[in-house]
Amino acid sequence: MASGTILHVNAVGIMAALEEGFEPSLRGRPFVIANMDAPRAVVLDLSPQAHREGLRRGMVLSLARNLCRNLAVKPPRAELYTVAEERLWRIGMEYTPLVERAGRGHLFIDLRGTTGLFGAPEDATQRLRKDIHEALGLSPSMALATNKTVSKVATRVFRPAGFVALSPNEERGLIRMQPVGLLPGVGPLLLARFGLLDIEDIGDLADLAECEARAIGPRGLELVTRARGIDTSPVDPELPERRSVSGELVFEPDTTDPEILRLRLGGLVTELGFALRKEGRGARRASVELSYTDGIKSFGNAKNTRVVARDDELLDLALPALEQARKRRVRVRHLELRLSWIEAAGPELDLFEPAVAKSDRLQSALDRVHGKHGFIALIPCALLSAGIGLPHASEGRA
C-alpha cells in the first residue's frame, strides 16, 4: 500500500551540525552551544558526543561542564542559523508551495500532486534529502505519513538520520508502541503527570475514555485524538511572522492611567495565552495599538528571541510594546493586542530550566481552571479592586 504524502523533515541538532560544518575541528568532539554571557547560561544545542556524555538541551551550562570535563563551548551564531533555516525552507519550496516551518530544523511538506514532476513521494523525499545534504551538509530524519502528528512521531523514532514511509495501515501500530513523550505537545509537566497515571506509551494514552481524557487537562481530548493517529490540521505555508492571535477592548470611561492599561492588557494576555497553549503554540512578537479619544492611533512592538507561552512570559513581552505605544497624554479609548510569530511551543523548542518549573506548574493549574469554569472563575485582585472585568479576545490572521 502506498505511503502518506505528509513529510516531516527533522534536522536533529541543526545548530551543532552547522557549527561542525563551519569548524571541522569540532567533529567527533563533545561540544555545546550556549550563551556564556547569560546570567544563567543553558545548553541550546549539543553534539552527538556530548549527548552520549549525558548532556541535554536546556541543561544549565555549569552542570554540563561538571559532567563533561573536556567540553567545548561555542557561542550561538544566530545569523548563521537563520541563513541555513531559510535555505532549508527554500529547498522544500522547490518541490511544492505547501511547506510549513515548524520550528528550528523542522519542516512539514505536503507532497500531494507532485508525482508528475518528482515521482512517488518516497522518491521525492530521497531527492530532497540529497539536495539538503549538498546545500547544507545536513542529514535530517524524514518520515512520510498521512498526517503531521504521525510523521513527526516517526522522525523522532528514526532519528538522527533515518527515513520511513508509512502506509495508513502501519501508522497506528507504530505510534502506539512509542513512549508518550514522543507525542507532539507532551512536555515535561504532562510527562510527569502521565507517569503518576501509569501512562507510559502513546497507546496507553490512546485507550483513555473521553471522561479520562478531560481529566488530564484542557488539551486532554486533543492529545488522546492525536495519540490515536488522528490529525486533520493542514500543512500551513503561511510564514510564522504572519500567524497571529489578537484581542481588543474598549475603555469605559476613557483613561490615561498606566496601571489600568497594564491590568487590562494582562487580561488580554490571559485569554490569548490560553488559546495558544490549547494548540501547543507560543509567540515571539507582541504588537499593541492604542486609539485615543481624538481619533489618533499609536503603535508599539516587542520581539523575543524564543517562543514564549506562559502568561507571565507573554505579559513580559507585551508590556514593552504597550510602553512604546504610549506616546501621548491623551485619554485612551481602545486597545488591541496582537501576538504573532506563532510557532509550536513544545519540549524541543522550550529550553526549560529548573527555576521555571514552579511557574510551569502554576500555569498548568490555571489553565485547568479556565478550561473548566471559564475566565470569570479566576480574576486578579487588582482587577477586582479597580472594578475591571476581563476582556474578550478573538483569533485572526495578520
Task: Write a structural description.
With 398 residues, this protein is an alpha+beta fold. Among the domains are: 14-78, MutS, DNA mismatch repair protein, domain I (3-Layer(aba) Sandwich), CATH 3.40.1170.60; 177-227, DNA polymerase, domain 1 (Orthogonal Bundle); 240-397, Dna Ligase, domain 1 (2-Layer Sandwich). 41% of the residues lie in helices and 21% in strands. The chain is built from 16 helices and 14 strands. It has helices spanning 14-22, 48-52, 61-67, 78-93, 115-118, 121-136, 148-157, 168-176, 188-196, 202-206, 210-216, 220-227, 258-278, 311-325, 357-373, 381-385, and strands at residues 6-10, 31-33, 45-46, 72-74, 99-101, 106-110, 141-145, 163-165, 243-255, 281-292, 297-308, 332-340, 343-344, 392-397. Strands 9, 10, 11, 12, 13 and 14 form a six-stranded antiparallel beta sheet that branches. Strands 5-6-1-7-8 form a five-stranded mixed beta sheet, with helices on both faces. It has a three-stranded mixed beta sheet with strand order 3-2-4. Helix 7 (148-157) links the parallel strand 7 (141-145) and strand 8. Helix 11 crosses helix 12. It is globular. The two termini are 41 Å apart.
